[in-house]
Amino acid sequence: MSNPLVHAFFVGRAFAEAVGEQVENAVTNALSELGKFDAEQRERLRQFTEEVLQRASYAEQMTMQGRSSGSTNAATSTDLQAMIDDLRAETAQLRAELQRYRNRS
């Protein structure tokens, strides 16, 4: 016959080992899932970045094609001058409107 204290010691030791293994498995699984999640997010970010760069490149190419195919430097210069003139006119209108507002106050 064995001593009940010795038996209790071995039961406690076996219990502690089993709980330790369960905790180890849980932590290992959690870290594994975290690693998978991190890798998936990095891949999604890489794909997103690649897509954005492709779109930007496509838009740049289309813009350059439009400029080179249908316009000359003189036309571009005229267009720029017209745009500048329009912006100056809008600025003058805004200044006048602002002045009217200030005078009312």
From TrEMBL:
Gene Ontology annotations of biological process type: thylakoid membrane organization
Keyword annotations from UniProtKB, A to Z: Coiled coil
Coiled coil: 77-104
Pfam name, any one: DUF6825
InterPro entries associated with the record: PG18-like (IPR040003)
Superkingdom per UniProt: Bacteria
Name assigned to this protein: Thylakoid lumen protein
The organism of origin for this protein: Thermocoleostomius sinensis A174
